[in-house]
From TrEMBL:
This is Histidine kinase/HSP90-like ATPase domain-containing protein. Keywords: Kinase, Serine/threonine-protein kinase, Transferase. The keyword Nucleotide-binding does not apply. GO terms for molecular function: protein serine/threonine kinase activity. It comes from Streptomyces solincola.
Amino acid sequence: MCPTFLLAALASERRPKRLERWGSSGHKLRPAAFTWSRRQGIPTKGAVVAVVFEWAQRFSSTRRGARLARRLAVLVLDEWGVPHDHDVSERVALIVAELAANAVTHGRVAGRDFELRVTAPEGVVRVAVSDAREDRLPVLRSDHGEDGGYGLHLIEALSDRWGTEPRSVGKTVWAEVARKEEGQRV
């Protein structure tokens, strides 16, 4: 769905029911946006409303799951107005590929999936990959081997910011890519 529909839904007197229907394909608004609209009343015509795009999906902790995560992240960005061949989309694809591969390789717990969450608050695309392994927090190392250890260096080079967050079960590794062009929706 396009943001125009969402803004129309926010401005409508029937806002709650229309917003419940909005959200196919896993797209959601951050709860803060709903809270703002409830506290401030329904925006009037011409009001500026910050829209946060969000998409999340769980994948099997396999190479196939990691590959699918990368492909779907690029498709979601394209739907949000960031074309496949754009620098932001290409950087996000590489970041998702690396974070998903790390989740499958280092964060795998038998029978547990990993989650990919892509959000686009104003001016940034944020990618977060969560897995169930809490005892192995990623660390940027300088002593990488011949065949590996370069992944977080790649994340460091491709993203504008990155980090980790502990969860009740497992951890989340996230990276942000700044959007440099103003003509895009996301």
